[in-house]
Amino acid sequence: MRNCIIAQSGGPTSVINSSVMGVVAKNNKIKYYDNVFAGLNGIEGILQEKFFNLSNLTNEQIETIKYTPAAALGSCRYKLKDVTKCTEEYDLLFDIMDKHNIETFFYAGGNDSMDTVNKLSKYAELKNRNLKFFGIPKTIDNDLPIMDHTPGYGSAAKFIASTILENYLDTNVYSKKNVFIVETMGRDTGWLAASATAARINNKCVVDYIYLPESIFNEEQFLNNVKKKLETQDSVFVVVSEGIRNAEGTFISELNAESKKDTFGHVQLGGVGAYLKHILIEKGIVSKVRSLEISTSQRCAMHCASQRDIDEAFSLGEAALDYSSYGENGMLVALKRTSSFPYFCEPIIIHTSKIANQIKYVPTDWINTESNHLNDSAFEYISPLIQGQPNFVLENGLPKFLTLRELIS
Amino acid sequence: MRNCIIAQSGGPTSVINSSVMGVVAKNNKIKYYDNVFAGLNGIEGILQEKFFNLSNLTNEQIETIKYTPAAALGSCRYKLKDVTKCTEEYDLLFDIMDKHNIETFFYAGGNDSMDTVNKLSKYAELKNRNLKFFGIPKTIDNDLPIMDHTPGYGSAAKFIASTILENYLDTNVYSKKNVFIVETMGRDTGWLAASATAARINNKCVVDYIYLPESIFNEEQFLNNVKKKLETQDSVFVVVSEGIRNAEGTFISELNAESKKDTFGHVQLGGVGAYLKHILIEKGIVSKVRSLEISTSQRCAMHCASQRDIDEAFSLGEAALDYSSYGENGMLVALKRTSSFPYFCEPIIIHTSKIANQIKYVPTDWINTESNHLNDSAFEYISPLIQGQPNFVLENGLPKFLTLRELIS
């Protein structure tokens, strides 16, 4: 008997379930493992032996879960204790895996999850345990190094660009001076805000200013830019990443709102749009300002997902299953772009130690000299990732969704 | 020479341009008018003779504008002075119409625009002017009386229900007590919030509580309900209309935020979700609360529009052109539902005097006794209106849009 287990961790994306279904579908084909278990709510659930056998899913269920956003297996933000300080959880996890004949543990997640895979694989090698750990990347943030992009990013970028385009039209219907601000996620990097470059009419980006965490945010320059632009047009459109900071390194959102730290010690952000709205009005630049926080919809809006993203996420799940059958350990599967026009990506494997705690920033040479917009390199990079309308089944006019919650209850 | 003019007014919807293109396409067929002019930015632009000849549009341009959200002709919130006090603007408008051989003025808008059509048609009759005024309803609020529903509502309802469904999945991935609040538009009526009943998995609504302006909002009852529900489930999902009030008649949003009045004297709302989040945390019910204001996306999210809504809006434009050729004056076209299963609606005409300043509320017998949810009548009403994926052309992966701004510049 040889089993594997898969779990999801961190913030959801629209396509993380597609990766999980890729693992299941591939194993249904090649039957390398006897059973593919799901660990409910990430590593937290596995430590409590909360399993569900995914090998019993029907093809119709696999197809529906593939098109279900957020983590269908449940997620967690559980951080394993440092292996140099406490090995109790590591040993417990290994024992649970042995007990259920689980040879391989697939972890679908972001940077922190790849760190977990790295630690577990190294400790297993140290202890001479015949257990393998494999990472499947997902993060809308697109901030993992080496790979071209992460599954989840394309769908988030597509929803953000659609939302910008539609609200640009909405805010331009009145002939009254106004400013519209869209705030995207992105704590350290501006990949999500950069998707604004894809919001185009007649192949011209509709956004006037884009601010990324990669550049220092200068409040005075921002106010002057908006003021000047309002002299020649009624409406100014601004896109801003939640993670922008001033020259002192202070998050702009912190100037506005209280902040608190998450389990991993990261500052939880939000509210930069509200702050910019506040100063535009307070400084008398303009009286009509609307600020839209796209919020969690950018990581779960399956109705606007990129079919290419869904397909790539699925193919990485399949590739992970394949590579694990070759005996790889501590690796993750990733996408390497071999051509942009026509677009082509192929799966590769990278050791998680090269990924964990590394951050990939938006290239400096994509950002203009005023640090308030991006050149066409950004659009050429993003455009292939947002292609294709999602192929989900409709039920009562809306996408049909399925999670383990429905199957278990 | 016999011309007509069409203009748009009030807040945009995803399908108001479809109605305008219905007028244009129908006239291209029957050639009743020599030219269909657009008045830019509503009645404000017509008074300044800012016109654009829509009869010169190509079929491809008509099709693209049909699938463009927000007001492609521009909009205004301009209110004509009361005819009993000042007739100057009325006379000016009539003279401009005569000068350009304009026999009929089509006004696509909500309640206030229908009031304008009513006043203009009556004053034209009083003055024995051979000028006709015709209303084409649009409002995401769905609050116009007599008709089954308004174009624009179905698409807004579809986007709201999709957003709820996806964020319900997102908020349920962690096994940690939390509350998710979605705030919809709806100052006086709960039609938009009621679309939450369409957010279903396995044919069960995923929303725990829905609060409408039609019922008095009891803060204590709300806190108790959420508290009790959290005893049996990790996540509680709440949908609330921006216009809910307490027993004293005070808007809940006013308890939180400053408010100001728009041109028509309506209080501008927003922030009720933020207030409910605040009290849930302050009263110690739960520490993790997220509040999502769907904001302007609900009235412009063409990427998630209802194709049925688009088609109905188009057919009302066609019907308006037809009825105007029969010599009708002061009327509006509207939809009458003749059957729900199978769904069928037919165009009718109603005099604008019966519509202006009237409000259609969500029926009391759809609301449960605790005033915090709706029964299946709401779902049966809404479900047919959110059917069909929108048929737009894609450009760079996103819907292709076109407004007069691009054509004029």
TrEMBL record, chains A, B:
Catalysis: reaction(s): beta-D-fructose 6-phosphate + diphosphate = beta-D-fructose 1,6-bisphosphate + phosphate + H(+)
Cofactor section: Mg(2+)
Site (Important for catalytic activity): K138
Binding site for substrate: T139, I140, D141, M185, G186, R187, E242
One Pfam family matching this protein: PFK
Main localization of the protein described in the UniProt heading: cytoplasm
Site entry (Important for catalytic activity and substrate specificity), positions: D112
Subcellular location: Cytoplasm
Protein residues bound to Mg(2+): N111
HAMAP family the UniProt entry points to: Phosphofructokinase_II_B2
Family stated for the protein in its record: Belongs to the phosphofructokinase type A (PFKA) family. PPi-dependent PFK group II subfamily. Clade 'B2' sub-subfamily.
Oligomeric and partner information: Homodimer.
Known role: Catalyzes the phosphorylation of D-fructose 6-phosphate, the first committing step of glycolysis. Uses inorganic phosphate (PPi) as phosphoryl donor instead of ATP like common ATP-dependent phosphofructokinases (ATP-PFKs), which renders the reaction reversible, and can thus function both in glycolysis and gluconeogenesis. Consistently, PPi-PFK can replace the enzymes of both the forward (ATP-PFK) and reverse (fructose-bisphosphatase (FBPase)) reactions.
Protein name per the record: Pyrophosphate--fructose 6-phosphate 1-phosphotransferase
Lineage, broadest ranks: Bacteria, Bacillati, Bacillota, Clostridia, Eubacteriales
Gene: pfp
